[in-house]
Each structure stands twice: as structure tokens, then as C-alpha cells.
Predict the structure.
Amino acid sequence: MESASSVSKESGQALAEQLPPLTANATAVEADRCLYCYDAPCTHACPTHIDIPRFIKKIASQNLRGSAETIFASNLLGATCARVCPVQELCEGACVLGGDHKPISIGRLQRYAMDYAREHQSYPMVMVPPTGKSIAVVGAGPAGLSCAGELAKLGHAVTVIEKRSMPGGLSTYGIIALREPVDVAIEEARMIEGLGVEIKTGLEFGKDVTLAELQTKFDAVVISAGLGRTPALGIAGEEAIVDGLEFIEASKTGAENLKVGRNVIVIGAGNTAVDCATIAMRLGADRVTMVYRRTDREMSCYEHEYDFARKEGIEFRFLTQPARVILDGGIPVGLECLRVELGAPDASGRPAPVTVNGSEFVIAADQIVKAIGQEKPSLAKMLGLATMKGFIAVDGSFQTSLAGVYAIGDCVRATGAASTVMAVQDGKLAAAAIHQQFAQSAAPVEVN
Ligand SMILES: Cc1cc2nc3c(=O)[nH]c(=O)nc-3n(C[C@H](O)[C@H](O)[C@H](O)COP(=O)(O)OP(=O)(O)OC[C@H]3O[C@@H](n4cnc5c(N)ncnc54)[C@H](O)[C@@H]3O)c2cc1C
Ligand code: SF4
């Protein structure tokens, strides 16, 4: 019997960023295809409402610095978003050229401008005097960094508290390197520090520092702590199942220590599950099977991710409910499953999976990974905050049930798909709301 084996350093290359940067020529050709629409649908479809025709026009006229400025004006994390945004569903999906031709490669053009900004350190600056107000931000993921940067641009003093050793949140630890290498997220955090924001890593809110302490020192507190770990499946032998988030993290921050099986099962059918399956396939598994209790019509991953997974050679077993891990000497040798039939819609609005009695069967595997979402934010309960479907409840200004305490990003995303660009937009809008709160007598701040 063979257990999962470590990945060699060389095979870490298999996870190198998938899309190469566009060449100068390809960029010029692509920018020239843009129709520069008035009231452009792509700008409406971008959650941060970047003025896309404007930044593309600046690329076409060789004004890369101006192009980057246009992007940063709406989205401080444009380098991450250019790589991770599901553009097919957002800006590129709305491109009017998409009907008859290929839509403009907005994400890759944005990356070109952002790469230029990084290479020339052409980053936003603070152009206003200090206001004397200070804000603590809990969590250095996309939501927290966006909020911190926008608040700093408005003249406020911002301290970000991050429990991990590196900033960036899921951009650093969770999004596979094929889409976003770690150094892109770290550089973005450095850029936010360049605006005067202090990022304190290795400091856990609720353990090393309390809300009462932050409330004493700061004028406002923003919670942008994301979600929790992968929930339990509650099946026998679960201790031998690998946590999908830890699997991805290891692939980004220490691929040489990552153990990958020859015959891998991934439980789940969301984008994270596809990511785990892709890593296993790229890092040498002979066979990767995704197991899901509903059908391809109900799976939560994007359609383009499903297509990508199939092209990678990943197999799918639908209408299949894991029941128990079969172990030999503590090592998985298979996953016992039950056949499922779909019943009436459940609380999620999707047909309920109903297991068929006596339908047990075994899928052989030497490694089983679970990627079935993330636990709801634990801070909500710890702080006694009002919740909505288990997420932190906020009003239109991102204020929680505690005055002066705001929350943004995944920890408030009770409806709709969680994404980096939505977290960035939350951060931007919350910063404007906090600024407005501080300057009640001043004219309202306009954000698009
Ligand atoms: C595997 C995976 C892949 C994804 N891929 C994509 C993708 O390709 N495209 C896309 O748009 N979205 C993707 N997403 C979603 C996206 O990553 C999130 O929506 C986004 O990161 C949310 O940002 P956030 O700042 O709210 O939370 P997070 O990124 O989770 O950041 C929260 C931060 O808070 C810190 N923190 C938590 N608790 C504490 C505490 N008590 N004290 C101090 N710090 C704390 C955490 O360490 C973390 O750094 C993916 C998500 C996952 C799980
Ligand atoms: S931030 Fe994302 S959605 Fe918006 S224009 Fe850029 S790639 Fe498209």
C-alpha cells in the first residue's frame, strides 16, 4: 500500500502562474480593439466600477502610469483583481464585443497596467493632511487592505491587525498560485503600507488584543476577518481527510512539503474543490475524482471552472454522498459512498440530496481532500454581534449592531458569491462611510 508522497521542488513549477503577461504588441492590439463605449456595460459589471474604457484608452496612448492611476482610483487591489476576478461573469461577460467576437481581455490589460505600476513603483499617494482620526482594521485580507488604504488616502491613521505571519488573506494563502502567486499579494500589502498604514502581523484579535482595547485607542474598528476553516463532514475516518484550505495553502507556501496521492478524491464541487483537484492533478496524481452529492446543474463552481477541470482530466462522480473513509493502518484506501436521489428543494433552494438505502459502494483512493466551504465567522458570536444567516449583520454603512464597529468582506457576505473584488468594494465603501461619519457636517463623499 502506498501513501501520499511529497511533491518535488521541480513539480512546484506546475503551479506557476497560468497566464503569462501580455506582450507589448499583444497589449497594443487588444487595447485598439476596444470600442470605448459611452456608459460602458463593463464598468457597470465591475463591482468596483473601474472606468475600463478610460484605462484601456490610456494604455492605447502609451500612458501606462495614467492607466494605473485610473484603476487605483476605483480599486487599490487592481493587481490581484486582474488575476483572480471571474471576468467571464463580470467585466468581460458584459463586453459588447462578446456577442459576435471575443470580448476584450480586460483582466489581462488591467494586469499589464498594474505590472507597470509595480515595476515603476508608480503607486497612489496621500494628498491630504492628517485628520487626527485613527481606525483599527482586523484582518489584512482584500477587504481590510482596501479599507485601510482608502482611509489612509483620506488622511486617517490606520493600523491593521493580522493574525497570520503574512498579510493578504486568501490572496496570499487561499487562491492557487496558478491564478495568483504569493508575491503579488504581498507587494500589494506593501503598497498599502506605503500609504502610511501600519500592518501588524502575528497579532490575533480576541486573543492578543481585545475589542475594548481597540475601542479605547481608536475612533473606529473595522472587522474584516473573513470566514473560518473547512467545516466537518461528520463521517467516520474524517481524521484522515485533508483540509482543502490547508492543501492549497501548502501548495502556495511550501509546495515541497505538500503530500499528494496517486489516486485522489476531492469532496465538494465549488471553486475551492476545483482548485484542490487542479493542484492534485498538476502535482502528479494519476487520477483525481470530484465527489458531489447533487448534479452538475447544482454545483457552485463557475461554468468556466467546470470546463477547466474537465480539460485537466479531472473526473466527476455526481449524486454521490460520502459515508465513511476506509482506512488501512490509518491511511485511506477508499471512500465508502451512498447513491443519492434528488428530492424537493431544501433551505438552500436546491433539490435536497436523499440517500438511497443499501446503495453503498466504494471509490478507491489513497488521499481524500474535503473542500466544502468555510465556517461562518466566529467573531460574530464572540463579540455578541447581530448576525444574518450566521454572517455579521451590517447596515448600509457597514456598521454592525455595535456603534463604531464596522464589518466588511466575506464575514458579512450573507447573500451572493464571495469574491475578492466584492471585498475590495466593501472596503472602499466602508472607508467612505466612516469618513462621512467623522465629518458629519462636511458634504457627503461620492463613490461610484
Ligand atoms: C480557496 C479559495 C479560492 C478563491 N478563489 C477566488 C478567486 O479566484 N477569485 C475571487 O474573486 N475570489 C476567490 N475566492 C474568494 C476570495 O478569496 C474572498 O472573497 C476574499 O479573500 C475575501 O476577502 P476578506 O478580506 O473578506 O477575507 P480573507 O481574505 O479571508 O482575509 C481575512 C483576514 O483576516 C485575518 N483574520 C481572521 N481572524 C483574525 C483575527 N481574530 N485577528 C486578526 N486577523 C484575523 C485572516 O488571517 C485573513 O488574513 C476564493 C476563496 C477561497 C477560499
Ligand atoms: S476589477 Fe475585476 S471585474 Fe473589475 S474590471 Fe478589473 S478584472 Fe474586471
